[in-house]
């Protein structure tokens, strides 16, 4: 009898060994881990994320796992909740290219929290991140873009599975427990994108909710709780509930031989993924043709339908989240400030600045029917100037994505900038070296003293 999709994923999650993972995937995991820790560090300093920390600190409980930056030991579930919130709370975290979600924020905080409690080795830590990333990516690829069109948040529905897979490996669940853990994770799979229509900083804790739910699923399965063994393919399972059009073959194709962490997309700008390529395209046009904000009459931007609905029409942000999701605002500050630093998105004065709003209003976005699959984040742009000149270009892939990957030097520079908000240069050097040598550690918790102030 054929094995169902859920069962195949459960077997894959339980059986893959560190030695089965190609060296290039392990190296990519190290880049992912360092990038995510950097995002957690800078994220830990932001007021809206501190709400999650205060919530957990006031709850108290047994000290099992460490909160990044602050060093406070809290229950494992709470540490993962806070650190994942830090790790997705400033829009600098990685993305599953052409699948969506932020697998780094679903796996690395979980591996840090559970690995510390369990005394997991560096090899186990790395393998757990790779497999968790793989599971989450595959599930989201099967329902994209349909799930997003229906209003579901990709991270919200995918993270509980990625987090569960990471935790379950470190907890060493057996085959039967693993299958039930998938069923339980499905009960945590949820979340809509109404925040990108009317705002709300609650978007910041989606990753925390997913991380907590994933670990909880694995722990409950370990204790004997059962779940539906067809949570993915069943009549009321993941595929049927979250999408109208699905590609289930995306879940099992090359399972165990191709690891989707190779499809990681590292963000370079502190804003939503759908705007990354647009900023990059405008930047290249500015560098090539040397025009400024005062020269622009109109900017026409062709992007995917999902990108257009995910912030393309926000012209006047009213909070940090809506600023980070606003395509027109991002282009306006690129022209006016020659940068897209996080500080600009956090500045309320810029949200209502007449010059910013006027320039943002010159941005006209439209849906490009050719922007699908690997081309989902492409950008067609035409800039019309007041002197009558017009420049048009097409960029197929945003920087940091697998088909336009940046160098490790660029990624390290990004990490250093983020980490400096908390750590000294000496500590940053030590942390980079520690992640580079992670597979040699008998206890991956050796990382923990390096991620606190």
Rounded to an integer in angstroms, the radius of gyration calculated over CA atoms is 21 Å
What CATH architecture of the largest domain would you give?
Answer: Orthogonal Bundle
Order of helices and strands: HHHEEHEHHHHHHHHHEHEHHHHHHEEEHH
Query: Termini separation (Å)?
Result: 55 Å
Helix content: 40-55%
* C-alpha geometry: globular
Structural class: alpha+beta
Strand content: 5-15%
Counted by DSSP, the helix tally is 22
| Total strands | 8
Return the domain count: 2
Determine the mean pLDDT. 96
Oligomer: single chain
Which segments are poorly predicted (pLDDT under 50) over 5 or more consecutive residues? none
In CATH terms, the superfamily of the largest domain is 2-methylcitrate dehydratase PrpD
CATH C-level class of the largest domain is Mainly Alpha
Q: What topology, given as strand order, has the largest sheet?
A: 6-5-7-8
The major beta sheet can be summarized as: 4 strands, mixed
**Within the CATH hierarchy, at the fold level, what is the topology of the largest domain?**
2-methylcitrate dehydratase PrpD
Explained architecture:
The chain has 453 residues and is an alpha+beta fold. The chain folds into 2 domains: 307 residues, Orthogonal Bundle (2-methylcitrate dehydratase PrpD); 123 residues, 60s Ribosomal Protein L30, Chain: A (2-Layer Sandwich). Helix content is 52%, strand content 8%. The protein is built from 22 helices and 8 strands. α6 packs antiparallel against α8, α9 runs antiparallel to α11 and α17 crosses α20.
């Amino acid at each position: 009898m054929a094995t169902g999709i859920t069962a195949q994923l459960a077997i894959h999650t339980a059986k893959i060994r560190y030695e089965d993972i190609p060296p290039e995937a392990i190296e990519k995991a190290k880049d992912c881990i360092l990038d995510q820790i950097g995002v957690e560090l800078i994220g830990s300093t932001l007021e809206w994320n501190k709400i999650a920390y205060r919530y957990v600190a006031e709850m108290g409980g047994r000290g099992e796992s460490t909160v990044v930056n602050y060093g406070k030991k809290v229950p494992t579930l709470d540490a993962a909740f806070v650190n994942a919130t830090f790790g997705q709370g400033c829009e600098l975290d990685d993305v599953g290219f052409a699948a969506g979600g932020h697998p780094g924020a679903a796996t690395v905080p979980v591996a840090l929290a559970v690995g510390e409690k369990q005394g997991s080795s560096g090899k186990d830590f790395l393998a757990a991140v790779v497999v968790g990333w793989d599971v989450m990516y595959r599930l989201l690829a099967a329902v994209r873009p349909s799930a997003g069109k229906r209003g579901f948040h990709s991270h919200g529905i995918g993270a509980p599975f990625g987090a569960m897979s990471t935790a379950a490996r470190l907890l060493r669940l057996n085959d039967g427990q693993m299958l039930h853990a998938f069923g339980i994770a499905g009960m945590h799979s949820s979340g809509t994108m109404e925040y990108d229509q009317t705002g709300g900083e609650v978007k910041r804790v989606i990753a925390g909710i997913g991380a907590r739910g994933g670990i909880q699923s694995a722990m409950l399965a370990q204790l004997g709780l059962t779940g539906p063994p067809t949570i993915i393919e069943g009549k009321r399972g993941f595929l049927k509930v979250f999408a109208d059009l699905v590609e289930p073959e995306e879940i099992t194709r090359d399972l165990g031989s191709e690891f989707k962490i190779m499809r990681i997309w590292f963000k370079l700008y502190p804003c939503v993924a759908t705007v990354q390529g647009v900023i990059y395209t405008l930047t290249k046009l500015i560098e090539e043709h040397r025009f400024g904000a005062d020269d622009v009459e109109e900017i026409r931007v062709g992007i995917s339908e999902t990108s257009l609905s995910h912030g393309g029409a926000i012209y006047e942000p009213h909070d940090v989240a809506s600023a980070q999701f606003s395509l027109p605002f991002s282009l306006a500050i690129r022209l006016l400030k020659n940068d897209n630093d996080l500080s600009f998105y956090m500045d309320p004065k810029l949200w209502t600045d007449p010059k910013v709003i006027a320039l943002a209003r010159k941005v006209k976005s439209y849906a490009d029917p050719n922007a699908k699959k690997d081309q989902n984040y492409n950008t067609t742009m035409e800039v019309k100037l007041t002197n009558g000149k017009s420049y048009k270009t097409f960029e197929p892939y945003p920087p940091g994505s697998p088909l336009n990957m940046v160098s490790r030097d660029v990624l390290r520079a990004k990490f250093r900038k983020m980490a400096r908000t908390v750590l000294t240069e000496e500590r940053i050097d030590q942390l980079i070296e520690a992640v580079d040598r992670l597979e040699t550690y008998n206890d991956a918790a050796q990382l923990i003293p390096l991620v606190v102030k």
